[in-house]
Specification:
The complex is a heterodimer of chains A (about 100) and B (about 170).
Chain A: H1 4-24, H2 28-52, H3 57-87
Helix pairs in contact in A: 1-2, 2-3
Chain B: H1 2-23, H2 27-47, H3 51-76, H4 91-112, H5 134-141, H6 146-167
Helix pairs in contact in B: 1-2, 2-3
The chains are: A mainly alpha (about 100), B mainly alpha (about 170).
Chain lengths: ~100, ~170
């Protein structure tokens, strides 16, 4: 059996890649995908921890995160489409009206 | 042995997909990289006996969510090139420094830290009783967490209504 810690290490790597992508990319859609990447990393951590502790509640938590992430995607993509319709851009750098 | 083999393959596939998401210049390639990561993570769920969650991951994420992503990418154009220059000049060095610090810290902890990944878990052979079949997941879901389950129903309704409100617009010439 593979040590659950190794699964968590993979999850940590995925989370790191997602977080860094969030910082370096400027396309709102790709940034959104990086958020999904981070959510998946956390889900993998929860599944591994649940298995290591022999507890099903880890999987229940992942189920709830999946539902919330689906709702988040729906609203987030609607916001991106609404911004694009008004501004014809999906780059977060051009949305700087609130800059002080 | 089989688990180790699948773990290595799927972990590499997941990381390769994640790197594609961040590095690809074309958003469609990013979406396909994310798809690869989602499938690989689903396989890692199956290996860890989380069958139901893996099925939901493939159906909801790889199916519905990625379709939605690709729809929106096609809608707002794939040919818009991302500008290379940063409006915040210090951001890129900070990102690289941050990545280096995190990698060194995590690597050091893993190699030399000698700590438990999951505090409180016994190091003995784990009995494989946490098999995440539909029946096993449903039991805590509809007893301990039934209130949270109802709340997610409300959340999904609100999200659907919110998406319609955001996407709806009236053309001025009509």
């Amino acid at each position: 059996m593979v040590d659950p810690g190794l699964y968590m290490a993979v999850a940590a790597v995925l989370f790191l890649i997602g977080a860094l992508g969030m910082l370096v990319r400027k396309n709102a859609l790709v940034m959104f995908m990086c958020i999904e990447l981070m959510l998946n990393a956390v889900n993998l951590t929860l599944i591994s921890a649940g298995r290591a502790m022999n507890d099903l509640n880890g999987q229940v938590a992942v189920f709830f995160i999946l539902v919330v992430a689906a709702a988040e995607v729906v609203v987030g993509l609607a916001i991106i489409v609404a911004i694009f319709r008004r501004r014809s851009t999906a780059s977060v750098d051009e949305l700087n009206e609130m800059r002080g | 042995m089989v688990e180790a083999l699948i773990f290595v393959l799927m972990a590499l596939a997941a990381i390769a997909g994640a790197l594609t998401v961040v590095l690809a210049r074309n958003p469609v390639h990013s979406a396909l990289g994310l798809l690869a990561t989602l499938f690989s993570v689903a396989v890692l769920y199956v290996v860890q006996l989380a069958h139901f969650v893996a099925a939901v991951q493939v159906i909801v994420y790889a199916g519905a969510v990625m379709t939605l992503f690709l729809f929106v990418i096609m809608l707002i154009g794939v040919d818009i090139e991302e500008t290379r220059e940063e409006s915040l000049p210090w951001q890129r060095p900070v990102v690289i420094g941050l990545a280096a610090v995190i990698v060194l810290f995590a690597g050091g902890m893993t190699l030399f830290g000698n700590f438990d990944w999951v505090p409180g878990a016994s190091n003995a052979i784990i009995p494989e009783t946490t098999s995440g079949t539909i029946q096993a997941i449903a039991e805590p879901l509809f007893t301990d967490w039934v209130l949270a389950f109802e709340a997610t129903a409300l959340l999904l309704t609100i999200a659907a209504a919110g998406a319609i409100a955001l996407a709806h617009y009236r053309r001025k010439d009509l």
